[in-house]
Structures are given as C-alpha cells and as structure tokens.
TrEMBL record:
The keyword Repeat does not apply. One of its GO terms (molecular function) is ATP binding. This is NitT/TauT family transport system ATP-binding protein. Residues 19-252 form the ABC transporter domain. PROSITE patterns: ABC_TRANSPORTER_1, ABC_TRANSPORTER_2. Residues 274-296 have a biased composition (Low complexity).
Length: 296
C-alpha cells in the first residue's frame, strides 16, 4: 500500500524547453555545391526567454532563425516547439525581419496587422480588428491605423511588423536583426520598447543580432556562434543588463568577455565591428565549455 501511495505523489515538475534545437546542421545547395551554414548547433529556449543568437556575419544566425520559423529544413538535426517537430511555417512562430518592405504596401497599418489573424482563421473580422487596434496602440502607433506603409518611417514600419506578430500571440516571436537598418537613436528606442512590451506580455523571443551591445540589452540568454559554419562557442546569461546598464562597468566587462569569445586571435570574424580594445586569444572548445560553466 505504501508503494501505491508513493505513486500518487506527482513528480516534481521540471520546466521543459519550449523550443529545442538539436544538432542542427543547415546547408544550402547551389550549382552542385553544398554550403554548410551551421554545424550541429543545439540550444534550448524556455517560455519567457529572450534568447539571442549572436555571431559574426555569415555564421548562420538568420539560417537558424529561418529553420525555427520552418522556412528552411535542417540537413541534419531537428527543431521542435512545444514538443512538436517544426516541419514548416506556422502561426505559432511569427517573424519580424530587418527589411522595411515586409508589409504589403497596399494594406493599411490596421489591415496589415489584421491579415495573419484572418488568414490563419485565428480571429473573425471584429475580433481581428479589436486585437489589431490594441497592438497598434501598444507599439505607439495610435492614430496611424489607416496609414499606408509608404507614409511611415522605418521605425514605424518595424513597429507595425511587431504589432502584427504579437497580435497573433505566437508561441515564439522570431526577430532577425529587426533594428539593424534603423538609425542609432531609433534603434535604441526600439530596443527599449521591445523590453517594455516584453515586460507587459512576457512572450518568448528568439532574436538574431551581430551587435554585442544589442544582445546584452535585449537578451536574458545569449548563444555565441563561431564564424562560418556556425558552431556553438558558449552560452551566456545576460538577464542583469538593460539599456540603463549599457554604459556601466559590468556591462563593458561582459561585452569584452563576449568579444574575446567571439573574435579569436586568428582574426577570423572581424566583420562584426570588433571592439577597439579587444585582443582576444583563440577560443578552444575547452575554453568555451569553461565559460559556459562559469556563467551558469
Ligand atoms: N539562400 C541561400 N542560398 C545559398 N547560401 C545561403 C543562403 N542563405 C544564406 N546562405 C549562406 O549561408 C551562410 C549563413 O548565412 P546567414 O545569413 O544565415 O548568416 P548570418 O549569420 O545571419 O549572417 P548576417 O549577419 O550577415 O546576416 C552564409 O555563408 C550565406 O552566404
């Protein structure tokens, strides 16, 4: 009887990752040649994470995000969300890209935000309109619901894209360098507003950037990828940082440390704005492991 009673005790619940990437190898084929973009990349994203993929240009960050979105199929390995294998695009994984032309120009702001809700059957017209207006206001575009994209600034267009994605209440919001084409001031403001939206809605974010500062400001966890083909170098906890800590000593130290991890003495990955003061040494796998352990 005692043994039976023991069976009644529920197991201690351990948080399962929402998004699980396992040994993801991504390849492109062109003119008979195979180009390997990433090699055996694994990571876990938990519900409410602001998880950043950080690495130099060409390391496969965008490719990983596209694979998470279901736009690219892994040559090996797998990505699952909520325990289900990602096999194609779906309304649970909404994406915001860098390009300002991601909004159909013939639709107004409101129509743009409503469109995925209607197309996916997630909401009928009245509810879609309500949700659209709610999120348009949340991203600070009150008064622009009937405007067309060509009348908006780049930052405003990105706000629309964010509103459109969040209105769908996706399991994961995918963002591929969404602020990279904005001027520095607008970029900073958008980072701040993304943080504010996250505080309110606590969505799960998978965010791609090649800016160390942006990774620290936006993310609570950062995956560092090696130059082409992308492999995991280290994972860093960064929940303690935000825009207000950006100038501080701890922020600078973290930024330096990441720089050392990313840009070895071999000078491999210098496309992503190297820090002038950095003189890193080449990172061995053992060093990456040690860093991961140290940060944990
Ligand atoms: N559609 C494609 N066809 C062929 N090769 C591609 C394609 N998309 C990406 N690649 C290649 O895959 C590699 C990884 O590209 P990806 O855009 O994922 O890198 P990234 O880290 O996001 O770079 P960036 O920061 O410059 O955007 C690069 O060598 C790139 O040239």
């Amino acid at each position: 009887m005692a043994a039976q009673a023991l069976h009644l005790v529920p197991p201690t619940s351990v948080a399962e990752p929402l998004l699980r990437a396992r040994n993801v190898t991504l390849e492109y084929r062109s003119e008979g040649r195979v180009l390997r973009a990433t090699d055996g990349v694994s990571f876990d994203v938990y519900r409410g994470d602001r998880f950043v993929l950080l690495g130099p240009s060409g390391c496969g960050k965008s490719s990983l995000l596209k694979a998470a979105g279901g736009f690219v199929a892994p040559a090996a390995g797998s990505i699952s969300v909520g325990g289900e294998l990602v096999r194609g695009p779906g309304p649970q994984r909404m994406a915001v890209f860098q390009e300002f032309d991601q909004l159909p120009p013939w639709k107004t702001v409101k129509q743009n935000v409503m469109f995925p809700l209607l197309a996916s059957g997630r909401a009928k017209r009245h509810e879609a309109e309500e949700r659209a207006l709610h999120w348009i206001a949340k991203v600070g575009l009150d008064g622009f619901a009937d405007a067309y994209p060509h009348t908006l600034s780049g930052g405003m267009k990105q706000r629309v894209a964010i509103a459109r994605a969040l209105a769908m209440e996706p399991e994961v919001l995918l963002m591929d360098e969404p602020f990279a084409a904005l001027d520095a001031l607008t970029r900073r403001k958008m980072q701040e507003e993304l943080g504010r939206l996250w505080e309110e809605a606590r969505f799960t974010l998978l965010f791609v950037t090649h800016s160390i500062e942006e990774a620290l400001v936006v993310g609570n966890r950062i995956l560092l990828l090696s130059p082409h083909p992308g492999r995991v170098r280290a994972e860093i906890n960064s929940h303690q940082f935000d825009l207000h800590s950006a100038g501080g000593a701890e922020f600078q130290a973290a930024s330096q440390r990441i720089h050392h991890l990313l840009f070895g003495a071999d000078g491999a990955a210098h496309e992503a704005a190297p820090h002038p003061a950095a003189q890193g040494t080449a990172l061995t796998p053992a060093a990456a492991d040690a860093e991961t352990a140290r940060q944990a």
